[in-house]
Each structure stands twice: as C-alpha cells, then as structure tokens.
Specification:
1 helix; two-stranded antiparallel ribbon; mainly beta; globular; four-stranded antiparallel sheet; 6 strands; 66 residues
C-alpha cells in the first residue's frame, strides 16, 4: 500500500494508518485511516488490490489509475 500511497502524497504512511482486509479469492481492500490523497478531484479512501502465494512467496499488487 505504501508504494501506491507515496507517489501520490510524498508522505510517510505508518502501519497504524491503514487497515487491510484479505479475501480468500485473492483480493484485498486497503483502507486508509488518515485522509487520503485527492486524485482526479476525488479523495481516495483506500486501494483495492490482489494477492497470491506460490512456492513460499507472497506477492501483492495495487494499480492506481491516472
């Protein structure tokens, strides 16, 4: 989540400032507990992403639309 957050805000995001909800289908919702950045005139409340586990590795991805 931090790697999606920082380019938009250039601010630090601490562990206590976000909450993740993982779903068994390989998706997750990352909810901001602090005011989010304004993108395209709308304030973001969080990010949606995907996760996968394979060969002992966990991969996550969040895509931010321009």
């Amino acid at each position: 989540m931090y790697k999606a957050w920082f380019p938009l805000t250039e601010l630090w995001l601490d562990f206590e400032e976000a909450e993740l909800d993982l779903s068994p289908d390989g998706t997750f919702a990352a909810r901001l507990l602090v005011p989010g950045p304004v993108v395209g005139g709308l304030r973001l409340k969080g990010f949606d992403g995907r996760w996968a586990v394979r060969d002992g590795l966990l991969a996550t991805a969040i895509a931010v639309s321009p």
